[in-house]
């Protein structure tokens, strides 16, 4: 046989205990929060609501049944306007309460006062124990109407907020909506409908104790989705509970000595708990500050990415627009200087025109490098694979740049491998550009009369190409910057002009081929110079290019 009275008592203890503890720790977690304060009022109102409802039927308090009954309805009224204020500020608080909020709070307080101190809601209570009969006053229907309107209003507000909220907030709103809907449903059925139709059927406690649903969803939200600060709440709840148990121990001590000992233990434990709570709060504040800084850093990073994209777009546009006039300038200057169109040029004028021609070529190179960088970083570039010997490409690069080596009186040689190198697939245009860049740097950064040697070797997996010079070398503190954008090793800072993009582009081209590029360098007087290496994988079949025929091809 199920003991209903025992179930009712157990539920009473569970609901009241959980309600009071949760209300206190939520308030302590943030006393300045409207949301936390209204939750605290709501929790204590429910505790009074449930306890007074039970005591109305408790025979030992029969003489006070009317007071408990009126206190019961007063606590319900307080809970109704408290939950309205709570939901209005959940999950994000409203900085200022509206006129409607103040009006609703006043209506709730008015019903609470009328219920507690007048016969307008509860007229009288007759009988005792399970035979107790509530006699309602003239404001009974008005009170029930206020209850139903509040329930519908709260659920409507939650639904509207749910529709408009982000994914993270929707989870918390959904949990709150479930809890309040079940609480409202049970209270309307067992505290409004049934008492109206069957006054003698005392099932009110089912409606009262249905608050466990609300507490359950709140607890789940606390644990899973941090409705309130879980660390602070858990720490405070444990400290309050232990302090309460130790405090009770004082009054059940077997003697004065044990009582004094228990008092000391209670004081030490409570103070230790206070320090623990303060430590947790400090940790939480630090984490919140770090989270804010992380968010600011994330926003700043996003802004920098936008600026970087704008920069790339500008470079691409500027390079494209500059190409045409530069080509025209170079063409006309070439015709004047090399083809003598317009007649013989005065030596002094020729010197100025040759300077202009050199500058236009440097500008053309800059534009070319800018276009390369723009295409690489925007992903508008792919490799045009050709199956060809690497020796042919090295010979072509040396032929193209050999005149510059002669100008600086360098010896530029290709130290061919005695063993024939395997043929592999690669983009001739890009690898030629890499070689010209490496050889060109060796020419620029080596004093006149130097020696530059290009060599190539192979193993089972890779072909390795090396460009060695006996220049001044690269200092250790400059090595990391060699492959960065807009960076020039400043050994000959005032003598050598460049874009600072060549090595960055070379590195990207080699990486697109799934190869590696690196260098070794020395600045010692006896053995100075630099050797750049890059590898190309040896592959038998043409690599698959999903973007073949798309993007831009360099010429």
| Tally of individual domains | 3
CATH class of the largest domain: Mainly Alpha
Side-by-side strand order of the widest sheet: 4-6-7-9-8
Tell me which CATH architecture of the largest domain applies here: Up-down Bundle
State the oligomer: single chain
Helical content stands at: 55-70%
Q: What is the CATH topology classification name of the largest domain?
A: Rhopdopsin 7-helix transmembrane proteins
The end-to-end distance, rounded to whole angstroms, is: 93 Å
Structural class comes to: alpha+beta
Uncertain ranges: 490-496, 550-555
Question: Could you state the order of secondary-structure elements as H and E?
Answer: HHHHEEHHHHHHHEHEEHEEHEE
The average pLDDT value, as a whole number, equals 79
Number of helices: 14
Major pleated sheet: 5 strands, mixed
Q: How big a fraction of the residues is strand? A: 5-15%
List keywords for this structure.
555 residues, alpha+beta, Rhopdopsin 7-helix transmembrane proteins, Helix Hairpins, Heat Shock Protein 90, 3 domains, five-stranded mixed beta sheet, 14 helices, 63% helix, 9% strand, disordered C terminus
Per-chain topology:
Elements: H1 4-29, H2 34-56, H3 65-88, H4 99-117, E1 122-126, E2 133-136, H5 140-164, H6 167-197, H7 204-209, H8 211-225, H9 230-251, H10 256-338, H11 347-377, E3 386-388, H12 390-407, E4 411-415, E5 424-426, H13 428-444, E6 451-458, E7 462-469, H14 502-512, E8 517-522, E9 529-537
Parallel strand pairs: 4-6
Antiparallel strand pairs: 1-2, 3-5, 6-7, 7-9, 8-9
């Amino acid at each position: 046989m199920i003991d209903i009275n025992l179930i009712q008592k157990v539920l009473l203890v569970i609901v009241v205990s959980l309600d009071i503890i949760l209300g206190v720790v939520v308030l302590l977690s943030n006393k300045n929060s409207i949301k936390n304060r209204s939750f605290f009022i709501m929790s204590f109102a429910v505790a009074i609501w449930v306890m007074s409802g039970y005591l109305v039927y408790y025979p030992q308090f029969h003489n006070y049944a009317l007071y408990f009954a009126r206190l019961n309805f007063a606590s319900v009224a307080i809970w109704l306007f408290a939950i309205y204020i709570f939901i209005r500020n959940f999950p994000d608080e409203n900085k200022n309460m509206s006129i409607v909020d103040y009006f609703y709070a006043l209506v709730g307080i008015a019903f609470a006062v009328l219920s507690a101190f007048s016969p307008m809601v509860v007229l009288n209570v007759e009988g005792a124990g399970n035979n107790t009969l509530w006699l309602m006053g003239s404001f009974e229907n008005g009170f029930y109407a206020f209850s139903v309107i509040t329930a519908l209003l709260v659920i409507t507000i939650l639904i509207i907020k749910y529709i408009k909220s982000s994914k993270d907030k929707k989870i918390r709103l959904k949990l709150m909506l479930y809890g309040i809907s079940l609480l409202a449903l049970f209270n309307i059925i067992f505290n409004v409908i049934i008492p109206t139709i069957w006054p003698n059927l005392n099932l009110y406690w089912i409606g009262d104790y249905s608050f466990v649903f609300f507490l359950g969803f709140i607890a789940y939200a606390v644990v899973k989705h941090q409705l309130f600060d879980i660390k602070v709440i858990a720490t405070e709840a444990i400290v309050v509970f232990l302090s309460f148990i130790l405090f009770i121990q004082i009054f059940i001590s077997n003697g004065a000595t044990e009582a004094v000992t228990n008092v000391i233990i209670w004081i030490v434990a409570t103070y230790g708990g206070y320090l623990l709570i303060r430590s947790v709060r400090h940790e939480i504040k630090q984490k919140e500050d770090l989270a804010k800084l992380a968010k600011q850093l994330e926003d700043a990073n996003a802004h920098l990415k936008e600026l970087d994209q704008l920069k790339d777009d500008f470079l691409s546009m500027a390079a494209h627009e500059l190409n045409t006039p530069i080509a025209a300038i170079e063409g006309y200057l070439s015709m004047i200087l090399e083809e003598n169109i317009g007649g013989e040029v005065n030596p002094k004028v020729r010197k100025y025109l040759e300077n202009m021609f050199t500058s236009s070529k440097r500008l053309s190179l800059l534009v070319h490098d800018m276009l390369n960088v723009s295409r690489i970083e925007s992903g508008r570039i792919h490799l045009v694979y050709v199956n060809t010997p690497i020796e042919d490409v090295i010979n072509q690069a040396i032929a193209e740049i050999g005149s510059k080596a002669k100008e600086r009186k360098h010896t530029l040689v290709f130290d061919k491998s005695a063993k024939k190198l395997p043929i592999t697939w690669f983009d001739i245009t890009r690898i030629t550009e890499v070689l010209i860049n490496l050889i060109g740097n060796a020419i620029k950064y080596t004093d006149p009369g130097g020696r530059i040697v290009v060599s190539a070797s192979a193993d089972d997996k890779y072909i390795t190409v090396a460009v060695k010079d006996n220049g001044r070398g690269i200092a250790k503190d400059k090595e990391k910057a060699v492959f960065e954008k807009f960076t020039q090793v400043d050994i000959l800072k005032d003598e050598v002009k460049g874009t600072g993009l060549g090595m960055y582009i070379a590195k990207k081209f080699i990486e697109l081929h799934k190869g590696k590029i690196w260098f070794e360098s020395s600045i010692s007087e006896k053995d100075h110079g630099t050797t750049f290496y890059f590898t190309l994988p040896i592959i038998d079949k043409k690599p698959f290019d999903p973007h073949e025929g798309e993007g831009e091809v360099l010429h």
